[in-house]
Design brief:
Distance between the termini: 35 Å
Helix content: under 10%
Structural class: mainly beta
Mean pLDDT: 92
Largest sheet: 11 strands, antiparallel
Shape: globular
Number of helices: 0
Order of helices and strands: EEEEEEEEEEEEEEEEEEEEE
């Protein structure tokens, strides 16, 4: 065995509620386990399962009775701290035109590789969490994944579905061949058109300050700003083992602005943003 992890992040969001689930499998030299993390606007839980409760068939992950995949999510968890039951159906997925990692998808020994399975899709269904009902009838979903050994030491990640579009941006410290550099990947889906922001396309950070990041790439400029966090602790991989604690705001206040050729395509403030700001410099 070698140290590794593989996990998905599936987020469902209505105008008033947010639910994200993270099914994952993690391997160290001594053991293999799997887990399901559940994140809402107000709380977060992590449940560990035995290795033999995990299986994957195509684009479906099964952990115990729980199922995650392109058709939706089925949850059946019962522990002393957490009782979850429900089913959410997904509409047609909207994948990227090509791998978000671009040419870096072919680079061996990367610490972490990112995938985007769906930029935006409809969600319908109900889930009960410790007696509280989460209802998604005219809701939107987002689906991504990560695999590798560890999350970056420092990184910023944000995602938001909004009227007319969706976006994701990740800025991270990338170790490679004995050096470190700031790498970024992201997309903006706006009025049916996909824009991509990435280091391999010439994107660069022009400013990181006070929970704000501004990226420029040719005639494109994206600014994201965390205005008010609602942090919940999550488990993250460090050399394959889920021993690191990060903090995610599944639904918080943020500002986004996207410009092309000096003209603003959109600029808005929302309380429906998801944010992880694990950047310390």
């Amino acid at each position: 065995m070698y140290n590794s992890f593989y996990g998905w992040y599936l987020k469902c969001q209505s105008d008033s509620q947010t639910l994200a689930v993270i099914p994952a499998v993690h391997t160290t030299r001594n053991k293999r386990t799997c887990s399901v993390q559940v994140i809402t606007d107000d709380d977060a839980w992590a449940v560990t399962f035995a290795a033999d409760s995990y299986r994957r068939t195509g684009r479906n992950i099964f952990i115990g009775e729980n199922r995650f995949g392109e058709k939706g999510i089925y949850l059946a968890i019962r522990t002393p701290q957490l009782t979850v039951r429900g089913k959410l159906d997904f509409g047609p997925l909207l994948p990227l035109k090509y791998d978000i990692m671009g040419p870096f998808a072919l680079v061996p020994f990367m610490e972490c590789r990112h995938s985007v399975w769906s930029m935006r899709h409809s969600v319908r269904g109900n889930v009960s969490i410790n007696g509280q009902k989460y209802s998604f009838q005219n809701a939107w979903g987002y689906w991504e994944g990560d695999r590798g050994r560890s999350f970056p030491k420092e990184y910023i990640w944000t995602q938001c579905c909004f009227s007319g579009g969706s976006l994701m941006l990740s800025v991270a410290d990338i170790p490679m061949a004995g050096i470190h550099f700031t790498g970024m990947i992201g997309f903006i889906l706006w009025q049916g058109k996909e824009y991509r922001i990435a280091t391999y396309l010439g994107a660069r950070v022009v400013r990181i300050r006070n929970k704000m990041v501004r990226i420029k790439q040719g005639n494109l400029e994206l600014e994201v700003r965390l205005l008010k966090a609602a942090d919940r602790p999550l488990k993250a991989p460090a050399k394959g083992d889920m021993i690191r604690t990060i903090h995610e705001s599944a639904s918080c206040q943020a500002f986004y602005r996207f410009r092309k050729d000096g003209c603003t395509l959109f600029a808005f403030e929302t309380d429906r943003a998801s944010f992880e700001f694990e950047y310390f410099s």
